[in-house]
Amino acid sequence: xxxxxxxxxxxxxxxxxxxxxxxxxxxxxxxxxxxxxxxxxxxxxxxxxxxxxxxxxxxxxxxxxxxxxxxxxxxxxxxxxxxxxxxxxxxxxxxxxxxxxxxxxxx
Length: 107
Known about the structure:
3 helices, globular
């Protein structure tokens, strides 16, 4: 696997400044805005934001989201999980759809 070649990548990440008090909502919102403005497929849940695209473009968005969340802070925490795979498109929705199909077959 060569990361210089376009690879389909799904990244689930969580980012928050450290030491900024109890609520990190404004910082997380800045990070999510970067992801949404990227134009790449994405989803946000209570704990993670997922984004899909080619390796370089996804990692660039994550970097900018970390920078946005850390505005005015000296330290940021990042948790990241990635699925890097060639030949897959729409994996963000396709993986969930496959699980739903499996669950429907067990009714």
